[in-house]
Amino acid sequence: MGMTVIEKILASHSGKEQVVPGEIIDVVIDARVARDFGGANVVRHMREHDLAVHDASRTFFTFDCNPTGSDQKYAANQHRCRLYAREHGIRVYDIDKGIGTHLLIEEGLAYPGSTAISTDSHANILGAVGAFGQGMGDKDIAAAWHKGSTWFKVPPTVKIVLEGKLHDNLAAKDVALNLLERFGANKLLGCAIEIGGDVVETFTMDQRITIASMATEMGAIIILFPPNNEVIRYCESRAKTKLEPVLADPDATYAEIYRIDVSGFIPRVSLPGKPHDTAELPEEKIWIDSAFIGSCTNGRIEDLRSAAGILKGRKVADGVVLKIVPATDRVWQRCMDEGLIEIFKESGALVSNAGCAGCAAGQVGQNGPGEVTISTGNRNFPGKQGQGEVFLASPAVVAASAVAGYITGPGDLPDKPEKRVYEIHSDSRHESDSTVSKEAPPEDRPVEIKGRVWYIPKDNIDTDMIFHNRYLSITDMTEMGQYTFDNLEGYEDFASKVQPGDIIVTGKNFGSGSSRQQAVDCFISLGVQCVVAASFGAIYERNAINAAFPIVNCSRIEDLKLENGNELYLNFETGEIRNVTKEITVTAAPFSEVQMEIYQNNGLF
Q1: If you ran DSSP here, which 8-state letter would residue 27 be given?
Q2: Could you tell me which of 287, 290, 323 has the C-alpha nearest to residue 304?
Q3: How far apart, in Å, are the Cα atoms of 279 and each of 168, 180, 374, 375?
Q4: How confident is the model at residue 360 (pLDDT cuts 50, 70, 90)?
Q5: What is the distance between the alpha carbons of residues 425 and 169, in angstroms, rounded to a whole number?
Q6: Contacts (Cβ under 8 Å, ≥6 apart) of 278
Q7: Which end of the chain is more exposed for a tag (fewer CB within 10 A), N or C?
């Protein structure tokens, strides 16, 4: 009985002559990959269970989710992976290399007939070169690192035959979106897809990658292309060996065969929230705030050439931010060599180093609440690429939309940019005094307080120790308290133990470092009454005073003989400080006239 492509690949990697759909087999994996996203968990499993690495030459790290290393947690995870890699002789494709699934092809680690797994759900992109790729969780990856193989259930295979002729203005992304329109997110759920037909023979490797990358969005296990001569030559040049493509047997059995006339395909966009919810390019103007070209779906050189052809000699529309991220460093270098980077920069685009970008929420490409983005990514689930709305489209449509300022195709670009009229959303706090209700004057705030002491006998506690920079995106004061002192050694659990009304007493130069207001507001969030220090950082002192948060300079703190839990009395007018528990009194600097005025006003405003 004949086998399909995926059945032949799985059979050859499981020591079997024949496999059938539904059969569970143990599959040898040629390339076993962990990314920075999930990689640290793989390392944790390896260490906790004392697992040895089966074959370091087939084991890899790829750092593509946050290639800028700009997130503290990602940076820490990446370093854990690097340390483990050094111990075990594992190759790391670090933050300067690009998207891991693309690197597997570029480095010759994935090739026709091979197998690969990664903590990337789009590892099935390798179907573009006729290889078997799968995204798996960190436990699966750790098991494969240790054993060299993993169990897998042979999926049923469906065949899609593309017939007819594509319109000249159609991109590979349009082909993928038209297929999504036809099959939705679950009609082919759990199936392997073989795509064939005369049309497919003309597809370049980059076009195959784009289509294969959206198998996940169709709910499919993988989309497999029979490699053409171009793909074979490329993979042989990268793998440094002679390769034979794996093709389906003439009598292979398919669950379904679909014949689709591509002459009916049109340019499409995915509407926000669902990649499979596609529509024709809108006739009405949908204005955008930002545009993104990149991701594992559309960060290849052909994608960027397409975008450059539209952007050359044009400018990105006023009010629109265009972000461009090549898939790999090799692609980036080709953009440089061909002058594409210059075109992008002259158009007003931001070009970042290679990586996954906004799709992984770790690099450029994210949007904010209310922001409308058109993107070449493969997913636009709510929150996936930010908190705004995301449309998906081809690089040509995204580039054209960035120039026009609204969603449009390259054939409908206006001769002159249209000026967008923005709606002004009024906030009552920003309206004129005539429309703002006047608050009652604040009641006098107490100038005498008592509270339980947190005594922290340390000097130079800086703002990163108080409120680390990884939390700087937090603007809601109610959320800030939980992160207070979580970067101060010995006080990481402070936020869970402090009580409203407590008073912090500490050493010299408290609050040195950055200008972040959160380092003051986090104490207000927790209900801390006051901070007493031998001295304060200059910016911190101003921030606290302007926020009406009581701080007191006291050079004689040691004379108070403080211990945690002592009761402390303070008088802001006289400067008197008394350790009530031990009946010891010292004099500190009283509030200045300005500090008292702002304190009684409950803040600078």
Answers
A1: E
A2: 323
A3: 19, 11, 14, 15
A4: low
A5: 39
A6: 177, 178, 180, 181, 268, 269, 270, 271
A7: C
Res. 429: pLDDT tops 50: no
Domains defined for the chain, CATH in brackets: 5-263 (3.30.499.10), 269-411 (3.30.499.10), 448-600 (3.20.19.10)
Query: Which residues in 242-260 are b (16+ Cβ under 10 Å) and which e?
Result: ebebbbbeeebebeeebeb
> Locate tokens 């002459």: which residue?
263
Contact between 371 and 388 under an 8 Å Cβ cutoff? The reply is yes
Query: Is residue 57 classed as helix, strand or coil in its secondary structure?
Result: helix
Q: Are 41 and 33 in contact (CB under 8 A)?
A: no
Q: Which residue has the tokens 């750790």?
A: 142
Listed residue (45, 16, 235) closest to 146, CA to CA: 45
Residues in Cβ contact with 443 at an 8 Å cutoff, skipping those fewer than 6 apart: none
- What backbone torsions phi and psi does residue 107 show, to the nearest 5 degrees? -90, 0
Token look-up 């409950």 returns 602
- Alpha-carbon distance 216 to 275, whole Å? 10
Q: What is the pLDDT of residue 381?
A: 80
Sheet bearing 372-375, strands edge to edge: 278-280, 268-270, 389-392, 372-375, 290-293, 321-324, 350-351
Taking the alpha carbons at both ends of the chain, their separation in whole angstroms is 81
**Mean of all residue pLDDT scores within the chain:** 92
The CA–CA distances, whole Å, from 99 to 296, 359, 496 equal: 7, 12, 39
pLDDT score, position 362? 55
Rg (CA), the chain: 30
Rounded Cα distance, 442 and 390, in Å: 45
Record the tokens describing residue 262, joined without a space.
Answer: 């591509």
Strands 372-375 and 389-392: parallel
The pairing of strands 567-571 and 551-553 is: unpaired
